[in-house]
Amino acid sequence: MEIVDLINKKKYGGVLTNEEINFVIENYTNGNIPDYQMSAFLMAVYFQGMNSDESTALALAMRDSGEVVDLHDIHGVKVDKHSTGGVGDKVTLVLAPLVAYLGAKLAKMSGRGLGHTGGTIDKLESIPGFNVVLPLDQFKQQVNEIGCAVVGQSGDIAPADKKIYALRDVTATVDSIPLIASSIMSKKLASGADAIVLDVKVGSGAFMKTKEEAIELSRLMVQIGQKANKKVTAILTSMDEPLGHKIGNSLEVYEAIETLEGNGPEDLTEVVSVITGHLLAHAGVSKTSEEGYLLAKDTLKKGKALPNFYQLVEAQGGDVDFVKDKNNLLGHTKQFVITAEKDGYLETVDALNFGIAAMKLGAGRMKKDDKLDLYVGLDLHKKIGDEVKKGDAIVTLYHNEKGLKDAIKLISESYVIGNTKRTLKLIEETITEWEL
Question: Could you say which residues form the signal peptide (predicted)?
């Protein structure tokens, strides 16, 4: 078998066998296939696509290129969730203690932020002492004891995906749905969970800009999960404006605590409740996802899962007293307030630009080795559809001077106040394996 023959086969629209895909992944990971040939292969896939069998084979080959986590000694059904990335997405921070309180087991491996999307691991590290690196035995023991753990993704998980993604980034093949789906699912399948809910963001602040693209990606990821004998549900959620009000690492922890207290933003509470409902159904805690949703929403409203958040922080070495006074999470930054110049309604928000503005302040990375300022970011005082009066605060910037001028300019150009009261549809669609 030769790589040039497989490039040629895919170039003309041929369907690759499992054996052929395994050959490509194994030999590229081992250094037997050079970057220039792998680049040609990826471009052939970009133009010709892959069917669900090929995409599944690709995901499994990348999964098997490294460590596949064995969670069998965690009691009960192990659940997990994954977001395709957005602005202000602090769902995991709320969902982990909520799921644990309600009796399911969440063993979560998360990533760091890059570009305009924030990373759960960076957010947790804004809590002094919080340890995101746990030995596997300790990770599993913690899930057994308190129902959840959130750690950084091991470098041994899907190394083929890391190597291929770096190549996709410089060969203009990032936006290929089979490659995106296989990349995401290789890591999720390697993480060992029995049931997974995928939060697929769609809109101006998401990688998937249109509902049609998001549905195509979601269906393919659910199919891959089904073929790999995992319970997978995909939920399409709006990212036409940031999720919640706060963007930035410590600020998002603050808002997560607010939500666990029962005082969180409606959109964040809703998204967390919907995802939790499906996880509870998969875990057998509730009979249906609808029943699980109602249970989750009621639990949040009554603040019952907040002690589980403190328990998570304590278990991973974080300073519980620090987060119990959540104002500590606002840090010692300076503040700059952008106000409305006229009356009306907030009609549109460019979520992508808000994420970029937070990054310019130091909340996000342009390159993987950039150092973050964990206490800067944005607080959006108005959501789409809200009434606005001249002089009302629209956005507060928490800053330490870095990037302030650029962020102010970007934000000022990224929202529209008009005469129309708009309503966003938060949950666009849900795709489950039995609907395929």
Answer: none
- Mean per-residue pLDDT for 216-238? 94
> Cα separation of 310 and 319, whole Å?
9
Alpha carbons 32 and 218: distance in angstroms, whole number: 33
Query: Which stretches does DSSP call E strand in 314-406?
Result: 334-339, 344-349, 377-380, 387-388, 393-399
The conformation of residue 114, written as its DSSP 8-state character, comes to: B
What pLDDT digit, counting tens, does each position of 257-271 carry?
Answer: 999 999 999 999 999
The residue from 187, 231, 360, 399 that is catalytic is: 187
H-helix or E-strand spanning residue 179: helix 177-190
Q: Is 168 a catalytic residue?
A: yes
- Catalytic: 183? yes
Active site residue 161: yes
Predicted local distance difference test score (pLDDT) of residue 428:
78
Question: Contact, 111 vs 121, CB < 8 A?
Answer: yes
pLDDT in tens, 44-69: 999 999 999 999 999 999 999 999 99
Find tokens 């030995």 and name the residue.
Answer: 135
pTM for the full model? 0.93
